[in-house]
Every structure is written in structure tokens, then in C-alpha cells.
Amino acid sequence: ATDNTTSETSETFTFTVNGTVDGPVEPVATYPAGGALIYQSTPTLYWYCTSLDADLKYEVAVSVVSETTNTTDYTSTVYTKSNITKKYQAIPSTANLSSGVTYYWRVRSTKASPAGHSTWSDEESFEIAASASGTPTIPTQYYPVTGDIMYSATAYLSWGENNGTTDHLYDIEYGTDENFAGATQVNNLAVKHATI
């Protein structure tokens, strides 16, 4: 408005800010989850975090005793790992995970300066199967899944195959058409993840 007068208020508009750079944010544990039966004794844990803070690192903890309060540490653990820079972590054979046992796991984000950490993620669980087969099976997509919002111009894809094999190769397709017309294909991947 002009001439020292005030106009009517404009129409109201809304916007949403995705992500934050304010410090550690509670991650979301994605796999294995819901008591999934895992056909290998060294499973890889996957999670994601909506923070845009490039300085965040992650800490994971695995236990045989459930703790659903995310502000309380596990009273005992079979495996822990801190200062993780990726959003996944393989549990090594030295953890000696046993078949037929239910394991519980959580992850939290950490930052060195200012020092601090988020609350633990919601707890997830899995069980190690008694035996495994190396026969190829349809992989399970871990992340992203339908409808996930990506907070980066590059996407990290991850998947798994619950049969205990370590020598399979994988092909992936991605594109903007749901029927994969004109899709980009990447073949013979020896790992269960890719950045596109």
C-alpha cells in the first residue's frame, strides 16, 4: 500500500520445509524389520534420515533384549558401531549372531560439533534362519520404497536377497515411467546397493 494507508491482508499461502540442518535428527530404521527372517548371519542394517546436515554420523546397537523407550540405551548389546558415515552397516561375523534368536536393533544420529546425538530410532527386529540356500530369489527393495521423499538430487538404492548367498549379481532399472519404458538399466552389480 502507499500514502501511509494499509491494504487488506493478502491471500494466505502455505509452504513446507523438508529436512533440517539444525543437528542430530532421529533416523528411521528400515531393514531388517518386523521380525524378518534373515538367511545370513551377517545381515546389513539399513536406515534413512531426513536431515540435510552433511556432518551427521550414525551409531547402531543390536541386542537380544527389547527396549522400546527410545531415550534409554540397551542394557546389554551383542554389537555396536559408531561414527558410521553411510546409512547402512553390515554386522560382522565377530558378532556371532545365532540362528533361532530374535535380535532387536536401533540407530541414532550423532554430531561432533556441537556435540550431541538424537534419540534412538524406533526399535526393529529380525531373526537368523537355521539354514540358507544359494538359489537366486526375487530381491526385496529396502529403500526407497513407493512414495518416499528423497532429500537429495542423487538417490541411494538398496535391496537384499534372503538366501545367504554372497556371489549373486544384480540388475536394476530406474526411470520416470511406471512401465519402465525408456528406463535406464545397470547390470551385473556385485553389491546390494547403488547410487544414481
Number of helices: 0
Radius of gyration: 21 Å
**Gap between N and C termini:** 49 Å
Helical percentage: under 10%
Order of helices and strands: EEEEEEEEEEEEEE
> Kindly state the mean pLDDT as a whole number?
83
For the report, how would you describe the main beta sheet? 6 strands, mixed
Coarse structural class: mainly beta
Number of DSSP strand runs: 14
Overview of this protein structure:
- This protein has strands at residues 28-31, 36-38, 44-48, 57-63, 79-84, 88-90, 102-111, 116-117, 124-128, 140-143, 156-160, 170-174, 184-189, 193-195.
- The mean pLDDT is 83.
- It is mainly β and 196 residues long.
- The radius of gyration is 21 Å and the shape is globular.
- It has no helices and 14 strands.
- Helices cover 0% and strands 35% of the residues.
Features:
single chain, 196 residues, mainly beta, 3-stranded antiparallel β-sheet, 14 strands
Topology diagram in text:
Blueprint: E1 28-31, E2 36-38, E3 44-48, E4 57-63, E5 79-84, E6 88-90, E7 102-111, E8 116-117, E9 124-128, E10 140-143, E11 156-160, E12 170-174, E13 184-189, E14 193-195
Parallel strand pairs: 2-9
Antiparallel strand pairs: 1-3, 3-6, 4-5, 4-7, 7-8, 7-9, 10-11, 11-14, 12-13
